Amino acid sequence: MKILVTGGAGFIGSNFVYYMLEKHPDYDIVCIDALTYAGNLSTLKTALENPKFKFVKGSIADRELVFELFENEKFDIVVNFAAESHVDRSIENPEIFLKTNILGTQVLMDACRKYGIQRYHQVSTDEVYGDLPLDRPDLFFTEETPIHTSSPYSASKASADLLVMAYHRTFGLPVTISRCSNNYGPYHFPEKLIPLMIANALNDKPLPVYGKGENVRDWLYVEDHCSAIDLIIHNGRVGEVYNIGGHNEMANIDVVKLVLKELGKSEELITYVTDRAGHDRRYAIDPTKIHSELGWLPATKFADGIKKTVQWYLDNKSWWEEIISGEYQNYYEKMYSNR
Length: 339
Ligand code: NAD
Ligand code: TDX
Prior knowledge:
By secondary structure, the protein is of the alpha/beta class. The chain has a domain of 233 residues: 3-Layer(aba) Sandwich (Rossmann fold), CATH 3.40.50. The protein is 44% helix and 17% strand. The strands form four sheets. A seven-stranded parallel β-sheet has the order 3-2-1-4-5-6-11, sandwiched between helices. A two-stranded parallel sheet has the order 7-10. A two-stranded parallel ribbon has the order 8-13. The longest helix is centred in the first third of the chain and has 21 residues. The radius of gyration is 19 Å and the shape is globular. The N and C termini lie far apart (49 Å). The model has no long low-confidence stretch (mean pLDDT 98). The site of nicotinamide-adenine-dinucleotide (NAD) has 31 residues, from α1, β2, α5 and β5.
């Protein structure tokens, strides 16, 4: 079996590469990644030592390169993680989100049509469903919840989902889509809530909480997302969407306080800042379908996962310190100064 993993130098893609190399040592894994600001080749250092792994630098939106890769490699399965993934950046500059997330997806599917594959899997997000009210804890996103996006990021991911389904219906492409809730764990880029708060706390810098910190996210340890995708690409039904989540909803402020507690840092570091425009209030996944059809259940409880994650950032300071010492400084200044 030969699998193309796109965006494998990013957070979830890299965790998936390691998961698959370990779980299926007989598989060949090829990764294509453009190495944008979010992609880091050092993340794949150990994988690069494995003869079953190959890395190609390039964009999924580069039709010529992608077609050449498909022609040479003859993939069985394609798992598309490659994306611009940060909501705040999509508010600043939507265009690259449309290019990578929509047009890049189209190029991959065109290559799948031309060269043939057993499965094209689109890694989507619960954000395509929009948000839920804070005062209705009885409501959850199911696969039937209408698409109702808030940010340019989620609109681009939803557009890609619609295109994936169109390629299935029109051209008979064997596709699946997964929509996961918020992930956390190793190699999470420090622009996102949990790693940003860990890095700032360790540097005794203010922790910028948007609005009142009341927005709710449904957190899943990244390895559990990887195990779900592994099940879907092997046993999931073609043409189906699977929601992934572990019923672990928390208000942002409680997540931030927990991170501070784990690090033994003071809550005085918390600073409330201007809210994100169009900020989704609550995400909450109903994972009944993937559980009942594929037997998937998350293995890591949040209390353990957050401990492991904090420890990983303590043990791998050089990984994130190098990131936040570069271009990230300009990003941080632009997004957070005078906020
Ligand atoms: P990330 O930003 O950490 O990584 C994205 C990777 O894609 C990077 O390595 C980047 O270099 C690469 N990339 C970007 N543009 C590319 C292009 N044009 N061609 C090739 N590679 C390109 O993102 P992540 O958090 O790992 O998210 C991975 C996927 O999972 C995304 O599709 C995202 O929408 C989805 N997702 C993320 C979460 C989450 O909580 N992080 C939750 C649900 C779904
Ligand atoms: O500095 C911050 N302060 C803050 O309060 C940041 C970066 C975030 N937040 C809040 C905004 C959100 O309510 O924390 C919550 C989580 O924010 P992000 O980490 O930016 O994630 P989110 O917007 O929920 O989107 C994530 O989950 C779904 C991923 O980034 C997406 O790629 C995925 O699709």
